Inverse folding.
């Protein structure tokens, strides 16, 4: 694959990873976000769990995952949290830019502050090589120490004559090692904050305690104001005009950083989960040429998914509907603006869940 096609594929994957839905309201913006936030994804957990689609097909799998994943079950029990009852909204944000941007998670719900502190102290005492209980002023937080080990979640798919399409998920290593390091704290009884650095955790908790603090920046607030607040998932991305990339110096000299203009100006959208699945994503590129590259990437992704669905369907008439799923989504371009949207009907979703087996380990 040529560099230009690789870039197009990468941009296309980003666009399709956050596929979303209709514009026309005001999505809630988390008030504790720093001003240099460049990307925000919000998930209305409470609304999703009450959506007919999730209630009919997803709750059993979620409960099974919570029961069968030993590490997750132990942590949830220690903290006294039922993810299917106590959690309302999750906000994920990318903060700053450069080679290593910071990441922030803010979880809204109902938490037992006393039980959290007790569990955090016990983890730090029993697993001192992995956890550290810290205190700075009025803020107490748990720090996950970087171990150098790695954990991962592996997803796969296949098909056979007896079970049809089969989706597989398994974990390798320790799931706590999915991220190099992070810190977490209860800002209050309704807010859990997880950050990739101590500094970001402290800054966010400080913002949350100040009723006059302004969330994010003017551009991000404008983008979220244009999104529909009734959607299950909403997102907005506004990268800096230029980033820096590492390039090799001439004549064997050391590597150096040089500015690179961002191909993406703005990206917004959301996902609506009710009886069906609807998505809409708007991408504004910095130029028509960049928009063309995004379209190329989207088409490459569509072809990959089409190939996967064709493989899963095989020659069986029962699973032939899988081939229609990639064709339910369409990307169109006008100038430097792209619109990606699609819908999966209740009938298609029912057939999809009925024909798929989920295997976890």
């Amino acid at each position: 694959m040529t560099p230009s096609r690789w870039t197009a594929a990468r941009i296309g994957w980003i666009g399709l990873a956050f596929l979303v839905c209709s514009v026309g309201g005001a999505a809630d913006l988390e008030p504790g976000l720093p001003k240099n936030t460049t990307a925000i994804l919000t998930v209305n957990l409470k609304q999703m769990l009450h959506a007919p689609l999730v209630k009919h097909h997803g709750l059993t799998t979620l409960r099974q995952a919570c029961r069968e994943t030993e590490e997750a079950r132990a942590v949830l029990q220690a903290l006294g949290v039922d993810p299917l009852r106590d959690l309302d909204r999750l906000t994920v944000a990318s903060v700053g830019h450069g080679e290593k941007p910071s990441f922030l998670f803010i979880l809204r719900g109902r938490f037992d502050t006393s039980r959290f502190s007790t569990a955090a102290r016990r983890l730090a005492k029993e697993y001192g090589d992995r956890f550290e209980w810290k205190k700075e002023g009025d803020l107490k937080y748990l720090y996950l120490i970087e171990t150098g080990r790695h954990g991962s979640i592996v997803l796969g798919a296949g098909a056979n004559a007896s079970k049809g399409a089969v989706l597989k998920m398994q974990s390798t290593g320790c799931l706590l090692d999915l991220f190099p390091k992070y810190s977490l704290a209860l800002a209050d009884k309704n807010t859990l904050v997880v950050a990739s650095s101590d500094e970001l955790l402290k800054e966010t908790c400080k913002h949350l305690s100040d009723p006059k603090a302004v969330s994010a920046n003017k551009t991000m607030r404008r983008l979220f104001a244009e999104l529909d607040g009734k959607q299950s998932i909403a997102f907005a991305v506004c990268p800096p005009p230029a980033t820096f990339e590492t390039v090799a110096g001439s004549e064997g000299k050391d590597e150096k950083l040089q500015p690179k203009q961002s191909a993406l100006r703005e990206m917004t959208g959301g996902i609506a989960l009710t009886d069906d699945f609807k998505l809409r994503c708007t991408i504004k590129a910095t130029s028509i040429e960049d928009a063309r590259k995004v379209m190329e990437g989207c088409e490459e992704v569509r072809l990959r998914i089409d190939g996967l669905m064709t493989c899963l369907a095989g020659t069986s008439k029962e699973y032939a509907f899988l081939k229609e799923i990639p064709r339910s989504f369409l990307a169109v371009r006008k100038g430097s603006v792209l619109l990606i949207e699609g819908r999966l009907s209740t009938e298609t979703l029912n057939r999809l869940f009925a024909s798929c087996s989920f295997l976890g380990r």
Summary: The chain is about 30% helix and 35% strand. The chain has two domains: 1-29+218-247+254-361, 45-145+181-215. Residues 26 and 345 are 25 Å apart (CA to CA).
